[in-house]
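Backbones bend. Shown next:

***
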Amino acid sequence: MSQPSNKSSTIEESARAFDELTNYVMEIKERKFFLSPGNNKWSVAENIIHLIKSTQTTTLACRLPKFIIQWVAGKPNRPSRNYDELLARYQMKLQQGGRGSVRYVPKPLSKKKSKEKIIYQWQSVTGRCLKALDKNWNEQTLDSYIVPHPLLGKITIRELAYFTHFHTLHHLRTIRQLEIIEQ
């Protein structure tokens, strides 16, 4: 996978990341999908639910009317960071102990949640996210609006799209590590 640099490549690379995660978790047996690794680590299912919540927020930001986004967060006072700069900032925040807010922590799973339902929900939210980004934003407007991020502060819509891409890959790596541990 290459790094996104413009709207088109961001959508393409995000779609690839979403598909890669989907294809990987579809191969995991249901028992392992829900198995808690302990040590305050999330199961595969909980990682995906976290990603669903996060991606739903990105989708909402991409769907809101621009005047509401500006009313809530204001206008950017700097140019968008490139992919590497934003990734470095995110990694620094994680190293400093930063974690997602309570809103993004998965709640205990009910027995009614099946692996198939969770994966379907993931595919639905990622499809809506890509569609909203493609339909509602162009190269210029991606850099012209900011939204609040719980860990990174105010970021542009372009940066939010970058974040959604590498956040998905971050959790895919985490899930792959869980699989190694559980074998």
